[in-house]
Amino acid sequence: MTPDAVMRELAGLHALARSLVHGDADADDLIQDTAIAAIEHPPDEDRAVRPWLATVLRNRWRMDRRGRGRRQAREHEVALGDIADAEATPDAPDAIDRARTLEKLASALVGLDEPFRAVVIRRYLDGQSAAEIARALNIPAGTVRWRLKTGLERLRAAMDRSTPRWQRALVPFAAVKGAAVMKAKATIVSLIVLLLLVGGGIVALLVKRGDSGADKKPVATVTKSAKQPGLAVTNVTGQDDAAPLRPDRLPGQGRVVVEPVAIDGGVLGGRVINWSTGEGVAGAELTFTSAAGAVTVRTGKEGAFELAPPKPTMLSLTTIIAPGFLPYAPEFQHSSVRIALGAKQAVRGLTLFLFPALDYYGTVVDAAGAPVAGAKVKMADPPAGEQVIEKIVTEWTTDKQGTFVFHAPDFTVFEALKGSKRGWAVVDGNVATTHKMVIKIGDAAARDATIKGKTVDASGAPVADVLITAVPEDPGRKGESTRSVAFATSGPDGGFVLDGLDRQTYTLVAELDEYAPVNKDKVAGGTQNVTLTLDEGQPLAGVVRDPDDKPVPAYTLLVTKREGLVREVLTTRSVIDPRGHFEVRMPKGDYELLAYATGWAPSEPVKEAAGTTDAKIQLTGGATLQGVVVDADTGAPLEYARVTREGAGGGASASPANAGTVTRSDGTFELTGIPAGPFTVSIGAGDYHPRLEAGLVATEGGVLGPIKVAMKKLAEGEVPKIELVGIGVKLSADGEALKVEMVVPESGAAAAGITVGDHIVAIDGVPVTTLGMEGSVSRIRGVAHTKLAVSIKRGEQIVPLVVERLPIRV
């Protein structure tokens, strides 16, 4: 019986395993043990396989219940005796070859990178289950299984390099009295040997954890090594003898291209770069998953990587991990970066980003501002849910000075607790600039509410593996910025629990590829028995094209719904496809589609209805802005200042829609892909006040500048303030108008008589409904001491005003 045949039959027994043990992790362990027994001692040819496997599975479960400690000790002794007998039988040269191979296997295990070595040793030498390892390391069981798969794949690759015929040396060993040997989990030449020999075929990750019964059959996903059928890696650009890469002249802005290749499965090539510097990240590990399994590639020189599967396939970017950087590791099966490779086509020039794990310094203080020692600090779910598979540290205790050191993505919320006192803070722009965060604690209600519910399909049957996101509502409330997004994944029975919530309202968003996304508004923290019904919806498909009507092979797709001035993003997906093709599922209705691609200007919104399969989104080349960023006092050029166009955004952090660029060592930059019309650029540099430069107007194909941007350095202890030119109002969308939420004192708006509660309905004679939110803001900003006309609605009256733009710090 082949490993593949075993896995096909075992897939249908996962429900049985789950009924015998507690949790999917233990069920997976039981399935794996059954697979080992089946491969060692297959049934007779005329015997039904499925009932026989069920019996084996039950027997394995009963054996495990009889006392793991005594069993391991006894079997270890028997196994050592069997090994001694087995090694005395063969010819001496064969035995020596096997001994040398085992020595190299031990060396490969010792040389295995962390965190993979630790879980392999715990699982296969210490005999711990995935669930036990997860509890010991305080990580999800899914992360343990992924690390096991990747670790075994690397062991196989290391053995392939050092001993090309190592499998031949180990086959006799695995065959001799295999049952006793395989039970000796404390021996390095036990289960690892068999796992390596079968190429990972029995290390199965049952990705459809909630599927059971006749209607939905679980899918077994198998990790393949580069030497096995499945995903293969051609890391050409990372090899020492490869042609040197040309450094990207415009970090993060290069256009992705499609080239013909002789490789049947196509090629994906690109770079992983540092978000802060634009430099390549060498040694970053990218894991891609498909129906064939998972494969990990490592970046070489200048952060370059290439992936070459043996046949065209659909892939997801599951993780990117590199020392010194925050991981990109969203919930398993819920990465928004999707790849479709075509036959004999190479997609090259893809840029992926990692954010440095910068040291931030937190301080917990009481109401009087005194430091609080021994306070417990914890991180809420990362705002994008991108540190799920590979978690970062999330809990700390303050020292005698009330301080702690942490790493976190932007906009992460922290809670501090000491006794009955608690407080919250968020990693906002101030923290990102100063690297300092203060959490003030006092009397406040605990955020200990939960929202519980279930996800079902149209027939009422439970749907597993649905990603549920709780998004805080009512952004105008005091302290709203410290409310965090929460995440959960539905289990086999469709159940989910969102915890760490306050008692205010949330919008729940449920997402799973086979279904249309579902939103449920105004769900208060503490609500129980919420039902989210997923519908298959309708396909919404099409292509993204460049100005020459050629496919754009890499872009971020935003599916939005517009109500008045507000454009709500319903689905975001980063697509890599040489055909420029996309397809999502949406509920019945009308939508606006937008596409962003590096090196191109974003598309105009395209209105389409769900059910459309031939939508066409057109990109333009846009304009280029040239400039230099300098210190306002010394005139010295500022390197690594980030320059982005204001207003555009979305997408995964690894592949954002609006990456912008960074300045070179001489402070110069070029920002490409700017759409025609007024626009504003945002400039940020460490230890400097951020700036917004407005009053710029782009024309298609034009080149603007060079402009000179002078940045003011922060004084010791100074809070960063955004420097910009505008009329001095804070606005929010309110139906068909912009509502004035705040007026800056001594601003142009204050001088013109604009007050809180006014509604702006037109700017320079153009209705704000025509301009949209982004266009309206661009019109309001501009050059200092220029003027604009606004139409203000007060009650039923329309009041025309002329307002002067002035420099503002906010």
Question: Quick gist of this model?
Answer:
The chain has 810 residues and is α+β, with helices and mostly antiparallel strands. 22% of the residues lie in helices and 34% in strands.
Structure description:
This protein is 22% helix and 34% strand. The protein is α+β, with helices and mostly antiparallel strands and 810 residues long. The longest helix is centred in the first third of the chain and has 22 residues, at 141-162.
Strand-pairing-aware structural class: alpha+beta
Count of β-strands: 46
Strand order of the largest sheet: 6-5-8-9-27-26-29-30
Main sheet overview: 8 strands, mixed
Taking all Cα atoms into account, the compactness measure Rg is 29 Å
Q: Roughly how many Å apart are the termini? A: 70 Å
Residues in β-strands, percent: 25-35%
Number of helices: 15
Question: What's the SSE blueprint?
Answer:
Elements: H1 3-11, H2 14-20, H3 24-40, H4 49-65, H5 68-88, H6 92-110, H7 116-124, H8 130-137, H9 141-162, H10 166-175, H11 178-183, H12 191-197, E1 204-206, E2 220-222, E3 257-260, E4 267-274, E5 285-290, E6 293-298, E7 304-307, E8 314-321, E9 337-340, E10 345-354, E11 360-365, E12 376-379, E13 395-397, E14 403-406, E15 413-418, E16 421-426, H13 429-434, E17 436-440, E18 449-456, E19 467-472, E20 486-489, E21 495-501, E22 505-511, E23 518-524, E24 530-533, E25 538-545, E26 554-563, E27 566-576, E28 581-586, E29 590-596, E30 606-609, E31 615-618, E32 623-631, E33 642-645, E34 661-662, E35 668-674, E36 677-684, E37 691-698, E38 703-711, E39 723-726, E40 729-734, E41 737-743, H14 748-752, E42 759-763, E43 766-767, H15 768-780, E44 787-794, E45 797-804, E46 806-809
Parallel strand pairs: 4-10, 9-27, 11-17, 18-24, 25-31, 32-38
Antiparallel strand pairs: 1-2, 3-10, 4-7, 5-6, 5-8, 8-9, 11-14, 12-13, 12-15, 15-16, 18-21, 19-20, 19-22, 22-23, 25-28, 26-27, 26-29, 29-30, 32-35, 33-34, 33-36, 36-37, 39-46, 40-41, 41-42, 42-43, 42-44, 44-45
